[in-house]
Structure formats: structure tokens, C-alpha cells
Structures
1.
Amino acid sequence: MILVNFKTYQQATGEAALKLAQICQEVSLTEKIEIIPVVQATDLYLVSQADIEVWAQGMDDVDFGSNTGKLLPQAIMTAGASGVILNHSENKIAPRMTSSLVDRLRKINKNFKILICCETLDEALGFVDCAPDMIAYEPPELIGGDVSVSKDKPEIISDFVNHLKTIPVLVGAGIHNSLDVAKALSLGAEGVLVSSGVVLNSNPKGVLLDLASAFKK
């Protein structure tokens, strides 16, 4: 699995988001690897209407009612999202709120996919009981940088895999090429999260093809 976080980059907003999502889908189909765009809430409907699996970048622990400015889980699902990233380092939420939101989502739609991002193993272990579908290890100091988590902190990736056991582990931060992905997979990760390395590249399809090649090796 490769999750491509579109964040709020201009190159991945509005019609540009749809174009990039279509590239993700094209490479996913040809390489037979799950490549899922993670888009802004305002682009979910546009992308999902093109028959592309899409995830949300976040949502709030609220129900129908007086919650001005909040992202209602039911609305995010109706817009077409089939999954969500929670607790990203750029959008941290309190652990208790994260667990409560996971419980809420399970009651709304048990098939909705949930990925919780964590900066440390201790943080990840605190979410084991709420049983997300996946947990991602992303050290914030490496996000958007030139050094990948696979190269800089391989031992921590192994610790995540060994301690979380039944919960699949993804890794992100500084992932740029197939070597970074291959190293993560060799340590037991199920996939990677990428963002600027794809979104800001002049040839995103070429980057995705390179990343996907690591799964075949």
C-alpha cells in the first residue's frame, strides 16, 4: 500500500487533485499495488465521483448538530471517503479524542478504514486497544526532508512491527524512492506514506512507478 497525502499543496487542490488522483489510480492498476490519494475534504466528492478510492486527511469527533466548522464523519463518508488518516503530526489530536473518534467510526461504518499516525512507539502502543486498521510511524523531524525514515530509524520500524504484531505498520517521512520503500518492507512494514516527493515532483507518475517497483522485488 502507498498512501499519497495531498496535504494542501496547490499542485493537489481542486482539478489538480483529480488529475493527480487519476495518476495514482493508473499506476495502481498497472502495477497492482494499492495507491490511495488522501485529499482535502473539499476534493473528496470530486475525486470519488471519478470512481477512485480516496481517503480523508482528518475529521472531528462530532455527531449531527451544532458543530460549526467541524468535519462531520458522516459527511466525509457521504462525500466519498473510504478511509481516514488521524493524528498526523501536522494535525495532532488528543489521544482520548482519537480513541473516541475510532469508536464512533466503527459504529457508523465498520468497513471504513482508519490509520493512526504516531511519532513514537509509546504513542502507538496507547492506540492498540482501539484497534485501528493500521498504524503509521512518522517521525516529524524527517517529514518533507531528504533523509528517509527507513535509513535514519530502521530499528524503530522493527520495534513497531514487533510490538504491534497484528496491526499492520506503515512508515512515512522522507520516502523518496524504491530503495526507501524496499528497506521499509524488509523491516516488516506493509506500506508507506508519501507526500511532497510525489505531489511536488514534475513527474509524479514516474515517482509512483519507482516506488511501486519495490513491492515486486
2.
Amino acid sequence: MVVRDAELARRLWSRLEPIHVVTYFSPEVRAALSGAGYKGFWMGYFAGRAAPMGPVGPEVVFATFCNFSIAHVSRAIPDAWTFAPPSAALEARERGSAAALRRAFAGRDLAGPVETAAVLARAAAESAPMEGRALFAANRALPWPTEPIAGLWQACTLLREHRGDGHVAALAAAGIGGREANVLQTAAGIVPRGVFEAARYYDDAEWDRVSARLIDRELVGPDGKLTARGKDVRNDIEDRTDRAALTAYDRLDDEQLQQLLDALALLARAVIATGDIPEVTPIGQRFEL
């Protein structure tokens, strides 16, 4: 029997995340977004991920993505839509992501795992609750790709954004803003400060301001590490995130869930082997395959 607990939620996330994040790190997607007209990495990133919601403004992107600054988002959105419409971003990210996965799977006997994972992940994604999950729902409304590898990517993207929306809700319930969440990750020893400084655009002044708020709330100590209270708050957020994420898999029985885990492990290993994905990302993912 598959135990449906926090460990399972983390294993599922760890195995589907590499398949989704080729969207941000693979050369195929970067080239496709650039070819569509978007200028630079960040415009392509924000346009590609936000495109399912339509030509939204920076406030919507800031709210749904959560851990970027509004100034950072505003450098790319809404200007991105003057270079190319959301439909162009959607086509580019799907085409580029499928091409990146085909490269990762080439020369390996993975047709069976691709089919298994695509079917089961889609079943989970299409039955997952949408309430309160704006980014997941926007992706859920898109037409389903007909090509199997593109369908696999779409299903993993849905499940990833479903978990992400739940995580944002858990943070909000705990009174933790996106910028504070980044500093907490560093205080917990999960993500080095330098990663956030580069990928989430912090200067020393903002980092110090956010840290001071967390120190005042006794979540972080003067040494920059989590306090006992901080650990409790963070653990509660992660537990709520995991429990909310597992609701996406209620439709799958234990045998199907194990089949999905096994298939995703093989596929994720192939993606990781390309070297496209950084060892440490801003979400602090350590792949447990």
C-alpha cells in the first residue's frame, strides 16, 4: 500500500519538477521564446509562465508567482505583450519544452514510461481541485497537446502549479510574504542567499529589511538562522503544502500511484542527466529519485 503522507507528496514533486522546469532552463525553450519576440531571459520567463492567464498586468503576476518583487516583474510585464501576445508564448513554451524532453529521452528506452506517466499524470491533473488555485486553473483551461511528450509536460506543469498555488495559500495563511519566504529558505539552510540575490533581484538593503521583519517576529535570529518558532512556522507551511498537493492524486489508486512514481523517476533521471537544470534552484529542490 502506498502511504499518502508528506513524504509521498515530496517524492511526487521531486520527480515531476524536472520535467516541468525544462521550460526555464533548456536552450530549446529560451530559443523558442526569443524567436517569438521576447527580449531576454526574464521577459521570456514571465511571459511564458503568465501566458495561460492572458495579457495580465504586473500585479497579477506578482500575486500569483509570489516571491518576485513587483519592480522585477514590472520590467517585463506588461511590455512583453507588446512584443508578442500570450498565444505566442504558449506555443513557444510548449514547443520548446517538448523538444527539450525529446532530447533528454533520445537513445533511451522510455516510450513506455512516457506513455504511463502522461496518462496517469493527466488523470490526476484533470481531477485535481481548482478552487483557490488561479495559476493551476489557467493552465487547466488550455487545450491538451496531442503529442505524447508535450502532453507529459503539460500534465507535470499542471501538477506543479497546483502544488505551487497551494504553497502560496499556505504562506499567506501564515502571514509570510513571498520575499520573506525567500529569506526563510536561506535561514533554514535550504537555498544560499546568493541564489536569491541573482534569481530574485535582492540588494543588501532589501535583504536586511526583510530579515529585520522576520527577526522582529522571532522567526529568524540575529545570526540569520531560523529560531525554534521559525522552524515550527516553516514546518507547518510545508505540511499544509504537502497535504494540499496530495488532493491532486485522489483519483489514482495505490497501484496507479506507484506506476506514476516509477515512470516519473526514470524520466526525471534522463532530464537531470542533460545537465540543463542547476543543482540548486530558487525553490531549493533536491531531487529524490
3.
Amino acid sequence: MFRSQLDTSIKTNLTISSSDSKKVNVTESKKIDVASHFILRAAYCRTEDLRRWFLAQECRLFRHRLESVSNKSHGGNNDALREFLAHNDFDLDRVTRNEKDSLRDKLMSIPGGPNPVEFHTTEYYRVPFIQALELVSRRECYIEGGYAYVPLGRIVSIVAAKFRASLSKSLALAAGVFGQVAHDEQARIGPLLKGMNSQYTGPGAPNAVVGLDGEEVLSAATVDALAEQSMPLCMQQLHTGLKRDHKLKHQGRLQYGLFLKGAGMSLEEHTLFFQREFTRIMTSEQFNKQYAYGIRHTHGKEGKRASYTPYNCMKIILGNPPQSGVEHHGCPYKHYDDANLSALLGKLKIGNVSDRDAIMALKKDGNFQLACAKHFEVTHPAAKSVDGVNLDGVGNHPNAWFSASVSYHNKSGKVASTSNDMAIDVVKSEGVV
């Protein structure tokens, strides 16, 4: 699912068609690709956290493209990968036929390697084992005399590691001159570079989610049901914390409040929902004095009257971590330890054991957004094949996750009710009116 979504995104955003619209304009597509890379490199070199995030995304994209080249049909002999290595001057030490035959039993013992028929035509390369640590950690290569013996099909890991090292060095160098460039270009591109990491213009961010009848879905009456049905784990945890403690700390109020606003909850419904919870432990006067202003400010009705946008996944991941037990903001995949996250996934009955293991494996590898996207995949079976469900922003923005989930359940006829009768009943049952 992830590969197909990434292919679709690349085709949509980084591919320019030729004049007849049937072929790809390779030259123009390369220009867009290169320009976008260096713009993002300039914007994301400023801090260690930004560099780390950008490095992870670019390396993931690079590996995806390299594996796509490697997997293309070229008579099953990896011609495309071999051509890539030659074109980019990768000087790899190819193992001779005699040496390969002498190591046959040892090379054949590596899990997932070529079968006896394929072994005869498989090329092996000898590289210092320090360059193949990923393969060594997975026992996917043979080690002897300080060298790793790697089949051509697994060279992708070696190339990706070199790409990562090179890009990491380039980002560090760029960080050293960013201040001067931003100052010199303050009037032109300075603000763009400084604010790019906090902006999100993809699907789902500031758009209201509507039901089948065209009415906005999210209200004080339906938020509980929608939190369980369609909110990503980060927002579910904020909602659960609010329902349990009847209060959220400042960062939690910002993260959750902007999410609710972006999902279409009106100022009135937002105020009603928070008032309903907060006044379980305080008076209405205290709520109005201490918290109502902040909600109005979030909706652009106070202060600078600015239109604040919901936090995207990167901002949540790179933000201040929550203090255990008292704060509920942040990204569970990033900020929860393995034991707590595993227990939470089990408690919520997210998929089966295999599904939860797959999510945890992504979390442990630092692929927090992919873990979140996998969560969506598990809880929304065959969502890709459902017409009208836009999956582009899933894993990149909580609002896109929510919007896609609501659309998915809309198509299934299971979206939470938004009737006025239900709203009145819920509000009355909570003692608000």
C-alpha cells in the first residue's frame, strides 16, 4: 500500500507530461525533482531535528526509487541496477567466479538468498562490513575477514547508506550558511524557508469534514463517537486524556483544539465541548475566565485574529515531548516507549498480533509516520479501493487521517450521526443545558 501511494504521489507532484500527454517529459520532471530537493534542503537544514526528519524522508524516497529500478523487468538480471551503479561511479569489488564457488555453501546458507539455480548467475560484491551494517544486523550477508559478501540485489542497502552519509554531510554544511542566506534573502525567500516546515497545504488540513448530507460532521455531540471511530492515535489520546482528567495542558489544548478547528468544528461547538468537560472540575466562571479566550484566539476571534492551521505530523513529532502522566500531546509512535505503545495497541484491539507487530517494527525503526499510516491501513481494510477516499495525506497530517477515515465510513454507511436530536440528547445528558 505504501509503495503504491508513494508512486502515485511521485507521479502527481514530480512528473511533467510531454505535449501529447502520453509520455513523461523527463527533462522537465528532473528539473522539478532537483529544484524541490534543494529548496527543501535549504528549509530543513536549520536545526538538528529538522535535518534528521528531512534526511529520513529523502533516504526513504531514494531507497524506494532505487528498489523500483532494481525490480523492473530486465530479464531478471538486475541490468537497471547495474547501469545505475556504473553511471554513478560506484566502485564495488566484484567477487570472482572461483571465489564465489569456493564460498558456495556459506553464501547459500544466508536466509532469503538466491536458490541453487539462481546462484550460478548471481553476482556478489565484497564490501567492508562497516558499510553493510543494516544487512549484518538482519543476517542478510556473509561476513569473512572484515568483509561482507553481498548479492547484487541487496546492494541497494549499501548505496542507500552512502547516499545518507553524503546527504547528512551536505545538510550540516548548509546549516552553517543558512543564517547568512536567510538574512540576505530576508525580503524574498527568508520567511518561506523559515516557515516551510510548519506549513501543510495537502489534503485534509484546514477543510471541514462533511457527512453524506453535506452537513459538517464534527460537533460537541458527535466528537466522542468520531474520536473512537476516525481519529488518529495522537488525537484519540488527547481526547481520552480530556475525558479522563476533564482538562488539558497548554500544548494539548493547542494540538487538539487546532485539529478540531481544522476538521470543521465551529467556535461555538468547540467552546461547548471543552466547557462540558472542564466544568466537571471547575465552575463555568473559571472556565470562561481562564480558557474561553484561548479557544476564541484559536479560531481567529481574539488577539491578532490570525487563521492558525492545525499541526502536521512533523510538527507534532519534532515538538516538545509530553511529561508522563500529566500531558497528552505529542505523537504516540514517537513519544511512547515500546511497552506502553504495544499495550495501547492491544487495548484498542488494533488489528491482529501480526498487524500490531508490523506497526511496532516501524515505530522501532523510527518510521513514526509509516507506523501511523499502517495503523490506518489495518483499521480501514481495502480503503485504497473505495471511491472518494483520499489517502494522500494519511501519515503526514492528523486531519488528513481523520478526513480519509470519515470518508471511508461514509461510504460504508457507518459515519457517526449528526442529527439535531442526537445533539440535544447528548448535551442534555451531560447537564450542559
4.
Amino acid sequence: MKFFRDLNQFMVAGSRAHARWELEMSNNILHSRTRLLILGLLLIPVFLGGVAFADAISQALPSFIGGKQAYGPAHYTNLIFGASVLVGLCAGLITGCIGAGGGFIIAPALMSAGVKGILAVGTDLFHIFAKAIMGSVLHRKMGNISVSLAVTFLIGAIGGSSLGGYVNRKIYDANPVLSDMFITSIYVVILGFLAFYAMNDYLKSRSKKVVIEEGAKKIAEEIPPMGKRIQSVNIPPMLTFDENITPGGRRISAIFLVISGFIVGMAAAIMGVGGGFLTFPMFVYGMGVSSMTTVGTDIFQIVFTAGYAAISQYAVYGFIFYTLALGMLLGSLVGIQVGSIVTKVVPGTTIRGFYAVTVTAGFLNRVCALPEKMMKMGYVELSKGFITTVDIIGIAGFFIIITAFAAWVFWCFFSNLKVLKSGEVH
């Protein structure tokens, strides 16, 4: 029981750290005229329909692009672009308001809308990479980056991303249905852990005060037991870090950085979530790196890990829908800002409740998607009526809950607009 409780805390801490990164990227982009101008220029082909030219070029490329001649789409419809904006908006609202979990609904939402899993993963990765490139202000964080940790970590991340992308593509080439089932199963496990913890946290918060952030902060500035054990292992080469926090700094074997980077890179390439949700807990809880150094190094690694995985493992094979990525970027920028403002006028217990419901909705959506894929693979025998019913429940329930959450956030925002403008918030 303690193992699962620690694992849940580990994952939620990472999810919240990634949410803080999302908010920072959003602020950096929206507060810069240059970045907004670049974003506007990127949107010109979308609004003018100039992507038709790129589509014509893609059709002239060799037939293997995209695998099974399925993808590499440059075309779009207004409905698809609008849907991508709404998906990004809802993900941003969850991230900004709840402070965790928003990015986990993107791939399930795209897959529920009919996008193949591998294309949803590649598109989500590219959306994260675009946000990182446009929003990162690395020079502000360079003082907090341990170059030796970052470079060693990236060695493993590149290897993990390469393997994760290769696995996804090979499974898709073998059978597209198996590919969707594989990606769906990964999300079932991850969202299942998050949903269980979120609901448990919400139920506890109704009866007593639960403050996870303070506990996480305390652990972040101390070396946890696991971190002490790992730092005590003397396997050359040894890397020194946190010299500005501890006299003489702390030391760790490079092998642990490479292994951590490998895991993060593989998760990023398979799930399409950038890997940021794993970096923070691995560094702070697992290896005893200070939160200050972790934040700077995490921003640095997301740019390169997401960029490498998106371009080398998906873009060159045609598994990225650029129009969808741009729409999600637009929606998420607005959603994160609105969501973060609403937290000023909404009780923390209510926010925990919505977090539990939305993550659980994502979990049930993927669980309900599994029977159809398992039947198509010949693993189970189920009636068509049962499959249809379960599928409708999963898709309809998911989008109804996410839409209701978005409507509630906007209602809270506009109904408290005067209070928010006056600054009289609790």
C-alpha cells in the first residue's frame, strides 16, 4: 500500500511541476510582442488555406512517408482546426485551474475524435516542442542549470526517445489497431494511478486540510532517503552539482542520470507528453537534486527531448498533424491563463474535486476504448451492441465532463470579473 501511495505522490508531483512549466511558457509567449508576431505568422497558412500547396507536395513524396501511406497530413478543415483549439483550451483550463493533469487529456481527446494514436502522440509532442521553443527563456534559468547533469541526462533521453519512437512506429507498421491498443493501455495505467490518487486526495480534503505542496517543497529542499542512497553509490564518472546550495556540492554517478533520461525520453516518445511530468520527481525524490536546479534543468531538457522526439521520431515519418498542433497551442495559451486566474476565487477543495473528476473521465474514456480494439485484434469475443454502447459511454461521458468543466471555469471567471479586476480575492 505504501508503495502505491508513494508512486501516486511521485506522479502527481511531476504532473504539477509540468503544469508550472506550462504556465511559465504561456506567460512568456503572451507577454512578448515578438513571440505573438511569430505565432501570428504561423497562423497565416491556416487561415488562408495555403497548406493546400504543402499537401500537394506531400502527395508527391515516396509512398512510405507516414507508414502504410496513411498520414503526413498537411491539409485541414475548419472543423478539425476548431476542434483542436477546443482540445487545447480544455487542456489549458485544467492545467491552469488545477495545476496538474491537463496535458494527459490531449491524446485521449484526439483519439476519441478519430485520430490514430501514433498521430495523436506525434502531434502532441510537436505542440509541446513548439511551446517550449516559443516560450522558453533559457538565459533566465541558466544560473540554475547544471550543465553536466543536463548533458548526461540528454544522452539517456535521446536513447530513450529513439527506442520509444521506434517501438511506436514498428507496432503501427505491424498493425494500426495494435498501435492504438498499446498507446491506449499506457494511458489507462497512467491515468488510473492519477485518478485513484486524485479521488482519494479529494475525499480526504473534505474532512481535513491536505497540503501536498508544502510537503513536496520540504522534500525538495532536503535529500530524501532514496536520494541519499543513490548519491552514496560511487560508480565513475561522478558528477558534482548544487555547489551553490551545499558547500562542496553534491555528487552522483552519471549512470543514474543516463538511466533517468532514458526512461523520460521513452515515456515522452510513447505517450507524447514531453517527459516533463517525470523529470521533476525523478530528480528531486529519486536523486536528491535541489528543486532550484531541477526546475532549470527540466526546462532545458524539455526543449531538446520533445524537439528530438517530435522531429526525428515522428515528423520525418509523417506522423504529425501541424494544423492540429497549432490549434492546440492557441487554445492552451488562453486556457492556462483563464484557469490560473480562476484559482483566486475558487476554494481549493472544489478544484481538487474537479481534478479528480476530469482525470477519472480521461481514465474511463481510455478503458472504454479498449474492448473494441481488443476485439479487432481477436483477443476477446464481444457483441457489436456491447462494443458500441461502451464506446459511446466512454466518448460521450468524457467530452460531456470536460465541456462541463470548461463551462464552469468560464462561468467562474466572468461572474467574478469585477472581483478579479479589483484585486479583492482571497
